[in-house]
Amino acid sequence: MTTIYHNPACGTSRNTLALIRNTGEEPTIIDYLKTPPSKAELIEMINAAGLSVRDAIRQKGTPYSELGLDNPQLSDDALIAAMLANPILINRPFVIADKGTCLCRPSELVLDILGRPQQGAFVKEDGEAIINAEGKRVAQTD
Question: Is 10 a catalytic site residue?
């Protein structure tokens, strides 16, 4: 079973959810702004994703600077407390799936942890093709 900590106002989160659904699975969707994870759950997600606490904090569109969270002297406990008090600071979307936990930025990172194959073509909201008609990942050119 796959769980996504989702923000429906976030395009990356919506694309990630759509990629999960493109496997034919309906995940457990947690609107983390309304139902934030517990301290233990948040710490577990960050650790399982192989991130530092700072890597899991969202700066853009949040009170990050106003709260002084850019202070390098702040402990992980202080940063976690700020994230729990202001869930908008939790970067998104976190996905817990068959093959692991990932902060799916960009959204296609979810493909690495899903247990089911993609069922058809998928194009992100911005028009970028990610999955072809055969359900295979489209080669990206830089």
Answer: yes
The answer to the question of residue 137 being in a domain is no
Active-site option among 10, 20, 82, 110:
10
Q: Binning pLDDT at 50, 70 and 90, where does residue 32 land?
A: very high
Q: For residue range 6-31, what is the model confidence (pLDDT) as tens digits? A: 999 999 999 999 999 999 999 999 99
Each residue of 97-118: pLDDT tens digit? Answer: 999 999 999 999 999 999 999 9
Query: Which residue segment(s) compose the domain that 86 sits in?
Result: 3-131
Q: Does 136 fall in a domain?
A: no
Instruction: Answer yes or no: are the C-beta atoms of 130 and 138 closer than 8 Å.
Output: yes
In a domain, 101, yes or no: yes
Count of domains forming the chain: 1
Residue environment code for 108-123, b if the CB has 16+ CB neighbours within 10 A, otherwise e: bbbbebbeeebeeebe
pTM of the predicted structure, to 2 decimals: 0.94
